[in-house]
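Reminder to self: keep the SMILES exactly as supplied, no canonicalising. Ligand is coenzyme A.
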Amino acid sequence: MTNPSTLENTQIDGSLGPPEPIQETTLPSPFDEYFLSSLASSDFPRLVELYNSDLAFILFSPPYPYTLSDAQWFNDNCAHNRFPSYPGTQEAWVIRSKSHSGILVGICGTHPHPGKSEQHFRLGYFLAPEFRGKGIMPAVVTEVLRKFPGALFEAEAEVGNLGSQKVLEKCGFQYVEDGDSEKSWPVSKGGGTRQFLKFVKQC
Ligand SMILES: CC(C)(COP(=O)(O)OP(=O)(O)OC[C@H]1O[C@@H](n2cnc3c(N)ncnc32)[C@H](O)[C@@H]1OP(=O)(O)O)[C@@H](O)C(=O)NCCC(=O)NCCS
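Structure tokens returned for the bound complex:
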């Protein structure tokens, strides 16, 4: 079935391309040095750099080693997905720094939940190492979730990832008592199993 969010992207020749970028959002003070934007092809080398850094061993989903083709696939298949119930939203919110010429600082992902309602999302996020520990991600998540009134968000954080758990708690997520899970980690990223905690937030 055709994804309705791609229909608006049909080009004159019938091929699909990314829609117009969404309107940029500057974070509220004191984080107004950062803004939310859409993914661009000029970000692909930065994604390759970051997903091959420590993130390769922290994040479950991105392939490793990560290539420019993987970035192109993410751009073409996920990043620009739109959600008809929430006009002006997209799947991948690129966080950029004004004083660093708009460099990609990180991404906050609002991923549709397969098999669940159009109001049900999974949240994911990361920052480049040099931008961590400054309180940026709680400000980003708060701003992004404001764009999804009435939506239900789920998020998972590894048991040992206290920074990620704190982000969720600061943003009003609740720990789900019986939601703990175990994931088989990809062999390319070290293999083994890891324990995750589940959090939810009704916006
Ligand atoms: C997790 C992450 C998104 C947090 O974003 P951030 O903007 O750095 O978050 P903050 O600066 O608000 O820091 C989070 C809080 O956790 C605390 N924290 C961070 N690491 C910690 C650790 N190892 N132990 C205890 N507390 C820790 C910080 O002190 C801060 O708490 P505070 O505000 O009370 O001082 C960011 O560190 C990151 O991108 N990490 C790598 C990718 C990742 O883990 N993604 C999430 C996968 S589930």
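Points to follow up:
The two ends are 29 Å apart (CA to CA).
The helical segments are 4-7, 44-51, 55-58, 68-79, 136-145, 162-170.
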